[in-house]
Amino acid sequence: MNQRKRIVILGTGFAAISLVKKIDLTAYEVMIVSPRNHFLFTPLLPSTTVGTVEFRSIIEPVRKTRKGIEYMQGSCRSVDTERRTITCEGVDSGVEFTMEYHHLVIAVGAWNNTFNVPGVREHARFLKEVTDARVIREQVISCLERADIPGISMEERNRLLHFVVVGGGPTGIEFAAELHDLIEEDLGRSYPHLKGEVKISLFEAMNTILNSFDGNLRRYTAEHFKRQGIELRVGTPVQEVLDGGLKLKNGEMIPAGLIVWSTGYGPTGLAQSLPFDKDRSGRILVDECLRVPAHPEIYALGDCSNIAGNAVPQTAQLAMQQGKYLAKALNAIHDGESPKPFKFNNLGMLAYVGESKALADIPKANIRWRGLITYIFWRSAYFTRLIGFKNKVLVLFDWIKTAVFGRDLSKF
Asked: Could you count the other beta carbons within 10 Å of the beta carbon of residue 58?
């Protein structure tokens, strides 16, 4: 190991990339290890499922994030805290390799939480990665194509044209809204025989949707979905996901051509296996400087961690703030200074609800906006947060292209 201290970063999400952007590379050697070789701007992921935005418009290759860093495509299997090494496995090759570290940053995010509901992983679709969005997009088109074939039974046609979302958080709401826009704006051009037959339903186990938003905004969304024809069923937990439908806890069977599962996140396999203190949900507990208490050379950021005594949400803005904070803290440590504790600055929440309308809940500014003006604000906020000039150009072009030519419903 050279004179620069080595920082090994596990992950390529908001926390990891925000850290990489700000760390002093003259003081630290940065090594990134992750099975995903790109950064994904997840807030716009629902837009890619229906073609409003294209997949490559919201990803940025890790190797181009910053000159002077190193990246290896692999998965961390274990951490040896005594020797300060990690053991990894190459994604494609399966080759095992070991890396030393002075500082280890665990930013591995979280997995989809199934709440142990049978059949979810086998028959439902998640929405967390570009590969998930591509599968959903292909399945939506496949359902439309199959339903448009003459001679198909009415029962099977209705099943194929019923798209179900499980989970009333921002991701589930935004996907249902994007899907509604696709059906209303583009279905008549490509599938005129199916116009008016597609049904969208959203099921939420709790008694409300968008639990982190203001009550008036939640009620507005429910009424807006009703006007759009989206069936919203709260207080309706799912008992089992079947091949071709859902079984609710009240015994009701719901046939569906597509089921998207968006019910929050749980710890990854690596986070579960590490011998560190964790909270009730399995997130690694860290101190106010984001260090693992028993191992101050190890940090945990983003969705995989929680601050002991001061719980923080699992959001992109938190992960970005933690990444920037840790870069400044490590730079200060190199300069012989003591870092200040991390403080989360809640910038509020945004969500798209369809038909060019959005929500904005910003408590500090006492903003509870909704409607068309908020939609413009929503797009502007996400546009400015995109990493890289290339992504900004591509997303802007995608929005213009969709408005002029409609969404591409090709399947390949």
From this structure: 26
Q: Which of 395, 402, 404 is nearest to 60 (CA)?
A: 395
If one counts every other C-beta atom within 10 angstroms of the C-beta of residue 343, the result is 9
**H or E stretch covering 96:** strand 96-100
Rounded Cα gap, residues 340 and 279, in angstroms: 24
For 183, the token pair is 């059906």
Domain CATH number, residue 191: 3.50.50.100
Structure tokens at 361: 């809940």
N residues, the chain: 412
Q: Would you state the pLDDT for residue 2?
A: 54
Residue 368 to residue 359: CA distance in whole angstroms: 8
**pLDDT tens, residue by residue, 184-212:** 999 999 999 998 999 999 999 999 999 99
Same structural domain for residues 318 and 299? yes
Q: What is the mean pLDDT of residues 4-13?
A: 97
Place of tokens 């190797």: 63
Residue 230, φ and ψ in degrees, nearest 5: -85, 120
Pick the last residue of a domain from 277, 312, 334. 334
What is the span of the domain harbouring residue 147? Answer: 120-265+348-405
Q: Residue 165's beta-bridge partner residues? A: 202, 260
Tokens of 12: 């390529």
Beta bridge partners of 322: none
- Mean pLDDT score, 59-79: 96
Helix axes 372-385, 389-405, angle to 10 degrees: 150
Alpha carbon distance 285, 130 (integer Å): 29
Domains of the chain: total: 2
42 and 153 together in one domain: no
**pTM listed for this prediction:** 0.95
Give how far Cα 390 sits from Cα of 65, 352, 363, 395, Å.
Answer: 12, 24, 32, 9
pLDDT computed for residue 412 by the predictor: 79
